[in-house]
Design goal:
2 copies of one chain form a homodimer. Chain A is of the alpha+beta class and about 130 residues long. Chain A is built from 5 helices and 3 strands. A 3-stranded antiparallel beta sheet of chain A has the order 1-3-2. In chain A, strand 2 and strand 3 form a beta hairpin. At the A-B interface, helix 1, helix 2, strand 3 and helix 5 of A face helix 1, helix 2, strand 3 and helix 5 of B. The structure holds a DNA duplex (30 and 30 nucleotides).
Chain lengths: ~130, ~130
DNA sequence: GGCCTGTATCGACAACCATCGATGCAATCC
DNA sequence: GGATTGCATCGATGGTTGTCGATACAGGCC
């Protein structure tokens, strides 16, 4: 486990200065889109937040599955997608499998979305909601 | 324009303390998933970064369309999705249509993904990449 | 008015995705 | 060893999505 497909770049380019400062090239856009797509589902968002907000840092699948009105294979599928996006990782311990957050990936997204502290933004229509 | 469907919540709940601190409820997850889904496409990510990183704050569609190997209706479609997600807005000025970033939405995502400064994260497997 | 240009919408189609039941595999317990 | 439990994988299926050409609409120009 934790080693099935080389989908999670795990460490590739910490560089990119953010979405909001310079146009992304195709490679950066493709790589980031994979991660955002993984977050683009309510079930996966809830799974991720359940895992990330866990006190001990890790959660057993047996706690995640009953929290949803979905079949066990469906939850397993969503966890796999989150793992392939590099957002979480897991380990089998005896009968059970535990998942935890990989904070590097969420940190990277937060940086990519962050606006460099007081960017001008001449607000042609204002709109800072 | 700017007023076609009430899809962009524009200002709904600045509250939610973040993905990583407490489990999301279904409503929050559904709402956030819509925005992340809009970011889950390389073309839309590049469009957004082209718009956001623009010096004057706004970009004419006539500059965006030729930057891609895609048809004009396809670009228009992607811009519509970004707008429905509350990430950008637009205005027609004469013959041309101009788009700009709504920084409130990206700010909100950045906050949602940010980890509250020195969260423990006992790292059962380390993995801070 | 009529034409041209820029952009949005429509309808169609192929590709992808979320979901399920069935099944397989791993580890424990008897 | 055999039974049981926890989780992953497989195959199928209906719904969603990215893309296109055709078309409609809006505004400027003659």
């Amino acid at each position: 486990m934790s080693k099935q497909e080389p989908d999670a770049p795990t460490g590739t380019q910490e560089c990119c200065p953010g979405l909001l400062t310079a146009p992304l090239d195709e490679d950066q856009a493709g790589e980031l889109a994979k991660i955002f797509k993984a977050l683009g589902d309510p079930v996966r968002l809830r799974l991720l937040s359940m895992i990330a907000s866990r006190a001990g840092g890790e959660v057993c699948v047996c706690e995640l599955t009953p929290a949803f009105d979905l079949s066990q294979p469906t939850i397993s599928h969503h966890l796999k997608l989150l793992r392939q996006a590099g957002l979480i990782d897991c380990e089998r311990r005896g009968t059970w499998v535990y998942y935890w957050l990989l904070p590097g990936t969420t940190d990277r997204l937060a940086r990519v979305l962050a606006r460099p502290a007081g960017q001008p933004l001449p607000e042609p229509s204002g709109a800072v909601l």
